[in-house]
Amino acid sequence: KSIGLPADYITTWGLSCTSMSFILGSQALEGAIAPYAAAADGQMVLTDMWQGVVSSLNALAPHHGKRVGVLLPYIPEVADKNLQLLVDEGFEVASAMSLGLTVDKETSAVTQECITECVKQIAAQGAPDLIFIGCSAFRACTPGFISTLEKTTGLPVVTSTQAFLWHMLRLAGINDTLEGYGELFSEH
């Protein structure tokens, strides 16, 4: 049964929620999206935020290393799962900070000044090679902010939203570069 998707130009379908992506897992998400892909006659690539994060970190790792400094908003149980998944993907968690927030509304209220201070602390501990800011609810993917964080820390910075958008574009065959959104978008 067709659900009316314009399959002739939609090439990539993605689910946007970092914690949902890694808690449910890619197989469960692919099962949930399968009816939409079938409606597009299998011409669509399916992805989720966690796949975007891993792909982005892997794009940067050959140039910088696999020791990651991590900022998360999550409660300990969710943060621990996220950190373990990074390890499972072959990364070393060099330093991490979790804010213990319980809802997206709280995460969205975290200011960029607070994010900057947290990232500076993370960058100063454990000698990370790059920084990952997890959770699409953080207001971290705005024009110029990621590049400013990179200049401040001297490290590449990956945010969930930036990684997801980069990954979706690359899967769709769009390899344009973009300034202001960090090394990931400007060089990869």
- What is the makeup of the main sheet? 4 strands, parallel
- Residue stretches low in confidence (pLDDT < 50, at least 5 long) are none
**Alpha carbon gyration radius:** 17 Å
State the total count of DSSP E strands.
6
Share of helical residues: 40-55%
Instruction: Tell me the number of helical segments per DSSP (H or I, 4 or more residues long).
Output: 9
Beta fraction of the residues? 5-15%
Question: What's the shape?
Answer: globular
Give, in spatial order, the strands making up the sheet with the most strands: 4-3-5-6
Summarize the structure.
By secondary structure, this protein is α/β, with parallel strands linked by helices. It has helices at residues 18-24, 26-39, 49-64, 76-88, 104-108, 112-123, 145-153, 160-171, 182-187; strands at 12-15, 45-48, 67-72, 92-98, 130-133, 157-159.
Question: What do these coordinates show?
Answer:
The protein is an alpha/beta fold and about 190 residues long. About 50% of the residues lie in helices and about 15% in strands. The protein is built from 9 helices and 6 strands, in the order βααβαβαβααβαβαα. Strands 4-3-5-6 form a 4-stranded parallel β-sheet, sandwiched between helices. Strands 1-2 form a two-stranded parallel sheet. The N and C termini lie far apart (about 40 Å). The relative contact order is 0.17.
Q: What order do the helices and strands come in, and which of them pair?
A:
Elements (H helix, E strand, L loop, with lengths): L11 E4 L2 H7 L1 H14 L5 E4 H16 L2 E6 L3 H13 L3 E7 L5 H5 L3 H12 L6 E4 L11 H9 L3 E3 H12 L10 H6 L1
Parallel strand pairs: 1-2, 3-4, 3-5, 5-6
Helix pairs in contact: 3-8, 6-7
